[in-house]
Design goal:
about 110 residues; alpha+beta; Aspartate Aminotransferase, domain 1; six-stranded antiparallel beta sheet; 4 helices; 6 strands
Amino acid sequence: MPYDTHLADLMREALRSRPGVEEKKMFGGICWMLNGNMICGVEVGRFMFRVGKDLEPEALRWPGARPMDITGKPMKGFVWVDAKKAVKTGLGKWIDLAARFVGSLPPK
């Protein structure tokens, strides 16, 4: 999965002060892990956030969000967010939403 280096830099900055976060290269792209569990990633023109099934309806009401669908079948609990709209909303708000779910998972 190709990614936009500028978006990756924005995500790095937004995650810089958050404890327990680690960057990993995966599938040709970059994802970030919170306590060993995937929390977010970047692609070209969009971000990915893991919000969990319970928070997904809330996330989908936010500007620029849509279900994550790679194979024709939506991946429950994950959303794509248009990069411009995510930055306008504030990456910190998206990260906080994803952290509500991922932070509840047992560390790996």
